[in-house]
Amino acid sequence: MTNYLEDLNLNKLTEEDKTHFDTFITQDECLKLLKEFKNNKSPGVDGIGKSFYLKFWNIIGEDLVEVLNNVYLNGELTETMKTGLISLIYKNKGNRKDMKQWRPISLLCVDYKILTKFLSKNLSKILNKLLDKNQTGAGPEKLISDNLLSIESILEYMDLNDISGMLISFDQEKAFDRVEHEFIIQVLRAMNFPSNL
Question: In sequence order, which residues have a C-beta less than 8 Å from that of residue 36 and are 6 or more positions away?
């Protein structure tokens, strides 16, 4: 697998890029991230929602930040951060007795969501350097509509130059669920991400 990933010539983080992941979360930043979450969302397995953290911030804020920074530094989540409650949500279409009309959601602990939001904000600073120019479905300053414009341009070019061809589109159901976590970790290592992430 390692040889395969090396042969792909993936975009990699430079040492300077890695500095975006060297920072620790501050109390002010943690509180700001917490306030960005929607109110009245179901809590994770610990039963602690956003409103609890806000109400008792002056008492628990410093300890929460210490826990988050320890998790971040050591790269090892707490047991409650590793656990989600799975609930099924009806998609509001089709027969309610058909399981395909339901989708699972994971209810995650607020402390875990703060940590992942912190990581996501740091990652967004360098994501465009890592993504291929043709990857337009995700990332800052990316628009999925760019792919539609590219396809239209290619079809127009083929038509003007009398080039025959075929357009094939694949859409895998539950695509993310099909990717092994170990493979994702190996790709991140090949892209030079820090080992604690």
Answer: 117
Reduce the DSSP state of residue 172 to 3 states and report it: coil
Number of folded domains in the chain?
A: 1
- The separation between the first and the last C-alpha atoms of the chain, rounded to the nearest angstrom, is 20
- The answer as to whether 62 is a domain residue is yes
Secondary structure of residue 52 in the 3-state scheme:
helix
Q: For residues 187 and 12, is the Cβ–Cβ distance under 8 A? A: no
Helical packing angle, 27-36 and 57-74, nearest 10°: 100
Cβ pair 7, 187 in contact under 8 A: no
Range of the domain at 20: 11-130
pLDDT tens for 2-17 read 677 777 878 888 888 8
pTM above 0.85, yes or no: no
